[in-house]
Amino acid sequence: MSKFEFTRRGLIKSGAAVGAGLAMPTILSRPAFSYTNEPKGGTVTLGFNVPQTGPYADEGNDELLAQTLAVEHLNGEGDGGCLATFSSKALKGNGILGKKVQFVTGDTQTKSDAARASAKSMIEKDGAIMINGGSSSGVAVAVQGLCQEAGVIFMAGLTHANDTTGKDRKANGFRHFFNAYMSGAALAPVLAKEMGADRRAYHLTADYNWGWTQEESIKASTEALGWETVNTVKTPLASTDFSSYIAPVINAGADVLVLNHYGGNMVNSLTNAIQFGLLDKAVNGKDFKIVVPLYSELMAAGAGDNIKGVLGSMNYNWQLENEGSKAFVKSFGEKHGRPPSNSAQTCYAQVLLYADACERAGTFNPCGVVEALEGFEFDGLGNGPTSYRKEDHQCFKDVLVVRGAQNPTTKFDTLEIVEITPVSQVTYPPNHPMFGGDEATLGKCNPGA
Amino acid sequence: MDAFFLQVLNGLDKGSAYALIALGLTLIFGTLGVVNFAHGALFMVGAFVAVTLQRVLNLSIVTLDPDKKDFLGNPLQIQTPYVEAWFGEAAGQAIINWSVPLAILAAIPIMLLIGYVMERGLIRHFYKRPHADQILVTFGLAIVMQEIVKAIFGANPIQTPAPDVLAGVWNLGAWLGLSLPYPSWRIVYFVFAAIIISGVFAFLQFTTFGMVVRAGMADRETVGLLGINIDRRFTLMFGVAAAVAGLAGVMYTPINPPNYHWGMDFLVLSFVVVVVGGMGSLPGAVLAGFLLGILESFASTTWATTTVPGINQIIIYLVAIIILLARPRGLMGRKGVMEE
Amino acid sequence: MFGLDKRDTTLFLFVVAITLLAPFLLNPFPTESALAQFNAGYPDLMQRFVIFGIFAIGFNILFGLTGYLSFGHAAFLGVGSYAAVWMFKLLSFNIIPAIALSIIVAGVFSLAIGYVCLRRSGIYFSILTLAFAQMSFAMAYSVLSNPSFNLTNGETGLQVYASDPQYLKGDGPDLTHLFGLEMNATKTLELGAWEFQFNTGFYVCAVFMIFAFYIAMRIFRSPFGLMLRAIKTNQTRLNYTGINSRPYTLAAFVISGMYAGLAGGLLAATDPLAGAERMQWTASGEVVLMTILGGAGTLLGPILGAAFIKYFENIFSKINDTVLHSWFSFMPESIDNFLVAIIHPFVGKGWHLTLGLMFMLIVIFLPGGLVDGGQRIWNRITGRSRTQNEPVADPKPAE
After folding, report:
1. Chain A residues with CB-CB distance to B68 below 8 A
2. Entry pTM
3. Residues whose CB is less than 8 angstroms from the CB of residue B175 and which lie 6 or more positions away in sequence, other chains included
4. pLDDT tens sequence across A248-259
5. Nearest-by-Cβ selection for A277 from B150, B169, B298
6. Residue B117 pLDDT greater than 70, yes or no
7. Mean pLDDT of all residues in B219-244
8. Touching check for A233 and chain C: CB below 8 Å?
9. From CA A41, how far away is CA A31, in angstroms rounded?
10. Which domains, and CATH codes, for chain A?
11. Is the confidence metric ipTM above 0.90 for this complex?
């Protein structure tokens, strides 16, 4: 049993303490900021949202390394990378707008839900002002929608489906990577040149959004050059073995197999196709060929010897000989002992582009950044001359057509560049039917808060 | 007609993998009464035994070639595998080329050991625990195993090709007047699966050891009362089940390059196969494995997918539902096993 | 109080208190401190805690009481989400019709699936539910999202577009709201070095969870709950006494399906996007793990289990090497690097590994789940032995 003794003096003292305690807290609702997560101190936080678990974990890891490198360069550490070659000279290596750049990371798990959760946690908890990266179109569209609502800038990582800057385009979202339409437009002439204009193609397509848009694009551009499409078969995403899809190809009368697969799906379907001896066959008096419209370094590594001679397209390859590319490859290679992948390059370039846009706009306000990026033309980040189109926030630049090398000297040059398709050839109107037609709009930029 | 037979072959091939995994799984159910969610992971670990052996054989002496440059402009590193340096280039390359079949020899003791350690160290303590606890602990173990593999080998698939001799295509139907070009390794896989499956059956059917194990599966207490140490035999059976899963994994690597996530990919499917076959029935598991494999192959044909859109995505589950509704204990299940 | 006995009232009030005070309890570390990484008190994660809490509470009514282990409950959560987003697309962003429909649709869906699956028991039941859920997933992921009949929008996930009709929207808000109260509105309270966030969406979900918890509690203590327990204990004996247990199990199945639908509806209400991977077997497995981890058959367990798994997923995955270095930067560089190298495999991209290890450790050392662990600690503190607190003969589960 304890005893309380009240004294007048004690009461006043504790009363004063309680009063002081009550006066201290300040209740703020978000509108204290003029836009979401306005950086107040001496630092600014970027959010890097990449797959760290699941099948694309290695790709996500590569993106993360590139983004970390970009932050170093922005803060004036390391060798500066592409800051020296970048055509815009707004970046001084002293952070962004004088604020030191920090970053937080998250795991998208290549699932829309998890990716949104992790992006939200960066925005709500860590005060991230932009979200960068990712390795799937579904995730990119989902996170882009979230960033639009939250009022931060989203820069998509590896996303190749037309929809990201097509019917799902958003004012706060930007894409540096190329898309399925561009792959088709770049590949078709090379295919016609190498294989002739009277080929019969058989498509195996991953049965989800990206697969469909790629099939549509490749089909359209090859048929425009005189090819015939024998069959298009959808394969479930969860497939691990493609034998039952490959076997019918043998007697289908087709002489080209187009694999609209990505990642593990592509590695398995290509391996199975080689196993069934498709490349050793001659159909309609022509050698059988396989095409993989979207390549990545990791897929090439996973497919091993099977990619020899197989054509595909890429957004970037480290073997490009321009100044920006050399600077980036040197910077990345010296740090990690291997050349960067094309998704790493995209993520690296986007961090620099974002920072540069902030510098030029003089603010972190998303609307200012959007304005600075729209129609922005630049060079020196590895891809050659590039521009962000105002109408759909898609980057336009040259597209690489690559082929699995017959005799690679190291494990890094398993892909060789066949042709650099000029940007004019892959440009399309912003209201192209494959990109949502006239209905697709960016909406208005949202600064949040 | 050719297309029909090709799909049968594809089905038998898929079915071989399903049957091998399901066989081990049902062996563990039947003997130990344990729901082993780590069984898929054992398949994956087996595959990575092959990958590891390939890596080991490719361990190389590194010399610098000043004439050639790598991507950073430094002298190019030339790698010569030790086996080539030791046994001469031709013999060394042959050894590396045969790394997958060699991995079988390595996988048997390794998988038996892993199975033994798993049973003695962990599973044994969960015999008396509810199935829910067994699921949680084995699922946790499966995650740990796959994450360790991911930490070492990364998430990207790794090519582990078959020996050149077996990498081509055999025309099976030549003597039937049919054109049935089929990858030789897939035929090897099917034959291998048939041998393993009959081996396990023969072991259980024709040896005294197997007889005791079967008796223990039917009535564990009585066999124990007869003074037989049934636990020790069951431990060994766990090792055998692990080895079967592991070998299935090793042999599967040339068909599709393995990645760390394989275990989870095959886990659900193998459970479905076991249950469709009927709990506690070894022939049931094998039968269900081949049945589902073949049905899956036929559901993937253009004819099937145009008749019923999306059938290729759901066929296995659809068949499982139909079978389980028509036959309460699957194809050949025993009464009272895992029904409570 | 509320028709509960004294012990249950205490438990209920405890749950109400920790739920409502979550913004404080989950942010124990000052915002600028190195340990702020472990703070979980931001709106999205708090919402996930309570929503998955609801999901697990519902699952526990089926699994914890009847012992029927469903491996397909994520399907109900998924259809709940789709139903809710469709209501946003067709009517307005008001969450009430959306949540109502998601519960109804999930209820109907679970009635149909439950009716079929409950013809079998044991693992046969589990595989039947798994099969239905995987079929639903496959349909939602690709088959039902083809351009001519787009019900689910496949991989990208169903979302609301500006071109959607939204017949009842009028000039209402463009974000999900409860009669004008915007779900994503957040007030921030700064108290010295601490910062606490109060989010409308969280409190709406919290009220739903408290309500869901209350109903679960009443079910646990009702004659109906007792019947469900009897099914778990010995269904054969129950059948021999002339009781048809199927209606009871089916009722439990549908109730837990409706809980899942509610959780799915709330997920959509806090973030109007419904993705197919919510229905995948991994998601079904997750709720099983949550329930077992927390303590199947206990009232509090599922909530704890849900919070535990979501915490790992969202907090541990975000710890990268830079964060690690910032923790140990006060130490000499070699020790710093050493410690980072040791911890590195377990955080960031290795968060799965930690989760797997935790599953194993908990089930090995705490057979009754987290609740069991908490109880042991409590008994240690109060000095009571286990048997005094919970007589063996008493079949009441531990809370």
Report:
1. 409
2. 0.92
3. none
4. 998 888 999 999
5. B169
6. yes
7. 89
8. no
9. 17
10. 43-178+318-397 (3.40.50.2300), 181-314 (3.40.50.2300)
11. yes
